[in-house]
Amino acid sequence: MSTRQRLLALALAAxxxxxxxxxxxxxxxxxxxxxxTRLGDIRLPPGFEISLYAAGVEGARSMAFGDDGxxxxxxxxxxxxxxxxxxxxxxxxxxxxxxxxVKVLLTGLDVPNGVAVRNGDxxxxxxxxxxxxxxxxxxxxxxxxxxxxxDSFPDDLHHGWKYLRFGPDSRLYVGVGAPCNTCAVxxxxxxxxxxxxxxxxxxxxARGIRNSVGFDWHPQTGELFFTDNGRDMWGNDRPPEELNHxxxxxxxxxxxxxxxxxxxxxxxxxxxxxxxxxxxxVTFPAHNALLGMRFYTGDxxxxxxxxxxxxxxxxSWNRNPPDGxxxxxxxxxxxxxxxxxxxADGWLTPEHNYWGRPVDVIQAPDGALLVSDDHADVIYRISxxxxxxxxx
Length: 392
Prior knowledge:
The chain is mainly beta and 392 residues long. It has one helix spanning 3-13, and strands at 16-19, 22-25, 29-30, 48-55, 63-65, 71-73, 87-91, 101-106, 114-118, 121-125, 130-133, 147-150, 164-166, 172-176, 191-195, 203-207, 215-217, 224-228, 241-246, 251-252, 258-259, 263-264, 282-284, 290-295, 309-313, 326-333, 336-345, 353-354, 358-363, 369-373, 378-384.
């Protein structure tokens, strides 16, 4: 960690925020350790195990698999809010539990947080542009010049890092955050946008979203679910983080007027009635920073995890004591989210120090779950082994 980064971390740990008339000191104490030595701290359900899939993936954020098993990983900013510019390609030619090589694939980009792969082409979301790199698996050593698909997105860095995925309709979906903690928004801000695969036909799919950095579609219904991060500077325990369900386009999810089920923000009163806004499917603890999410469709985990939703909680900065730094399982029944449980935690120590920050989750070809961590600069692998029955 550089001197600048250490000073920033100390400053953040001493930030005082006013909430409901109280002065609270936000405790945030990152520690730098070898994550391989701390894997035993991670608590998982019986039968599950965590290991290191890849290390040295500096600032690892969003992930996407190519058809050949190459994992592409985007990046955002460092702890000093300096813009990162790198996309990685992580190969695993023998298909085992450990990556073969971590390769710096692309550099010189502007916060390339979002990555997606379709028909062998790599799509990358910068702050204001969507790029395509054709036949990328054939050019890991010499990537082609990008095709600029769309350069009409806002260029604000605040919530400007973009997540993108292809939906079941073959359209490209992009989250566009609000350029603020809380403010009135219009245009592309506070939305999920959909585009044709060539970058044309830009449409707003959903509005009233402060900052979504993860979404996926239910494997059976094809309906969109997405995470959203609530505003800061409003106390330890409000507003809740949200898992939202958008079964159709055109819905408004409340920002900046409402959070959770019925929490109105008096700073931005709504002209519409509460019925004009779609309430979250499930709410989570405030300031957990829910990011990447995936429905599980593999056959390695027990059948009770089929079509269940894994969510990465990056962890709080605006809360004392801190919270998050874990993986959740959202419980899905009949295509609806009905609750949640903690699936993996231990990145936050009892002393309120964190040594890791989960960002994104993705299902590997063998059915394991991979987890990116932009603090520890690694990709974890969570696998399951069924218990053996002793012979009689």
